[in-house]
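Researcher: I'd like a structural prediction for the single chain below. Treat it as a standalone chain; there are no partners to consider.
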Amino acid sequence: MLRDALPEIKTDVLPGPKAQGIFERRKNIVPNAIGTAYPCAIDHAAGAMIEDVDGNVFLDWIGGVGVLNVGHTHPALVAAVKEQADKFFHSMFNITTHEKYLELAEKLAAVAPIREEEKKVMFANSGAEADENAVKIAKGATRRPNIIVFSGAFHGRTVMTMTMTAKKAYAVGMGPFPDGVYRAQFPYLYRKPEGMTEETYIAECVKSVEDVFENCSPADYVAAIVMEPLQGEGGFIPAPIEFVGAVRKICDEKGILLIADEVQSGFGRTGRLFATEYWKEAGCAPDIIATAKSIAGGVPLSAVIASKEVMDAVPAGTIGGTFGGNAIACAAGLEVLKLMDEGHLVERSVEIGEKATAAFNAMKEKYEVVGDVRGLGAMIGVEFVKDKASKEPNADFVKKFVQECAQHGLLVESAGIHGNVIRFLAPLVMTDAQLEAGLGIFEHAIKACM
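Model: Treating it as a single chain, here is the predicted structure.
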């Protein structure tokens, strides 16, 4: 049964013969800018496993880039989608109100760790839409035009979110960009200046936020500061809680809203349902949460959650959209929350994270190319360097490493501002045997690529 299978490559080469034909078709019809680095043409999937069109079986440690926390084709999720499909697909929520939108919104409002108790929720379709709507909501509520984002940030590929995103390889030739987006320094502890203490470095990063008010925009023109609890594309870098607390204090003093981009970190990935639960426990909860990816197990859906006061201050007609809160997506979202609870997947995230982190740290001790291991729960980044002393990023190694893993049936993805980080986003339903098999392939690939 595929759900319990282990990686197995059956063809002599990858991609196999059937997959090669599919990739030829892809090359002829799909824009080159939508690239792929993987020799896998999926046929079907279950749990944490993918079987390709040639019968090769891969362990999926990418999970649709953080979308599949409850795994591929969970039977209960499939049944929930089918049940809703039998009733109706779509009507647009502005036209006909349906209860699954309300039920999912109520459940998310009950668990989202924002500051205020009275909350409202809106739905969109993608992470970029959630981030962009969160910014619109902040601007509408504060009547201020500007926002502050951070180095290393990734927020999407719309024009606004490309502007918010730090890595401009994602925005080549796409300008001009919107005005009013200013950038401060995110704490990247592994790469802090040599000889500087963490405390001093974090203080310098906090000062960079305050410098925006002096050099770019007066504080009373800033609607929001947007921060990922754990930077995804930037290299799986957790925001130090001391930094979050200092930014929260600045927001309170200046009347600025704090937006948490939980697009990738939400729904159990970090050992909490939302990573910002760690913030709330430390007394620095956000005002607005934008979330997506694993919210509906692979059906396109995203959400913005904010206080009733903030949401109801937004001018009418400035938020919403045709597909936001689609009935099938909401049915999937409700089932995902149920599966997270009944399957104890938040607790499972902690277990997987502890086992994987221990294994990665053991590899760090053994291999000169493994520079840093970091993360929260089962959202872990492994940073590769040319040597530990120089910490020089080793992107070439990572490119080879991704392919070496794939050749042995493990799918992993790179990240980081230098392209030298491997991110761990395995489905939380992965078995212990699958985790051990993946860790074995991971270590074999390190040795093979050195």
